[in-house]
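Hi L., both proteins are below.
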Amino acid sequence: MAPVRFGDLKEYVVQSCDQQRGLAAHMRQADDNLGRTLFKRNDRQFLNKVIHDASMDHRPEYDKRLKQLAKLIGVIDADATHHDVGTDHRFKRLEQENRKLKRQLEFALTELKNYQDNFTKLKRALEDVDSEFDCRDSQLKILQNNSTKFQRALEEVRFEFECKDFQRKLRQVLQGNSIKFLHRALKEVQFQLKILMAVLAVLILVASWDFVILIPQWIILILQWMITAAIAIVFIPMIIVAF
C-alpha cells in the first residue's frame, strides 16, 4: 500500500472519526506506512501541528481516535499533547474522585438512613417509656387515693374503738359508782328501817297500854297513816333500785 501523504492526514483522521468505521485498518495502515514515512522524512513538527489543530475540535470520539492514532504512530510530543493528556488524566482523576465521593455519599446516606431508623426506634421507645410513666403516675395517684381512703377508714375504726373503749370505761365507772351508791342507799335504808322499827315498836307498846282508850280515835288514825307513809317511802325506792 502506498504511503499516506501529510496533507491528507487531517482529512483522513476527520473522515475516519465521522464515519466511525474502518478505524482499526486505518490505524494499522498508519502504523505500518505513515509512521515509517514520517520518521524517514523527519517531519514530526508538521504532524504534531496537524494533530494539535485537529484536537482543538473538542469532539470526544474524534479526540479519542486521534489520541489512539498518535499513540500508535509514536510521533506525539509532550508539548503538543499536554492539553489532551492532562485533560484526560484530570478527567480520570476527577472520575475516580467522583466515584469515591459517590461511594462516600452512598455510605453517608446509608448511615443517615440507619441513624433515622435508630432515631425512629428511640423515639418510639421514648414514647413507650412516656406512656409507661403516665400509666405509673395514674397508678400512683390511684394508690395514693386508696391510701388516703384507707387512712381515713383506719382513723374511723380507731375512733370507733376509742369510743367503745371510752364507753366501756364509762360503763365500768358507772357500774362502780352505782354499786357504791347502792351500798350507800342500802345503808341509809337500813338506818331508816331501824328507826321505823323503833318507832313502830314504840307505837305498838303505846297501843297495848291500858290508857289507849283515853287517846282520841283521830290521833290513832293519823299515827297509822304516818306509819304507812314511812313504810312506803322506805320500801318503794328499794324495789325500784332492785329492778
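That was the first. Here is the second:
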Amino acid sequence: MDWYEETGGYYPPKQLPIEELNAWNTRLDVKRDELWAYLKELDELRALRARKTGDKEKVVKCPSSSCRCRQ
C-alpha cells in the first residue's frame, strides 16, 4: 500500500520523490477537471429547468469575470 492509499489520497508526505509528486499532481488535475465538468453540467441543468419553468430567479450567473466557470 502506498502513501496515497494509506491517507485516502488527501495529503502527500513532505519528502516525496519527484515521480510520485508528479503522479499526485496528475491525480489532482484529473479530479479538478471532473469537478469542473460536473459543475458545468449542473449549471446547464439548472438553466434548462429555469427555462422550462419560466423562472428567471433560478438562473444564476457567476459574478466573477475571472472565474473558470465562464470558460
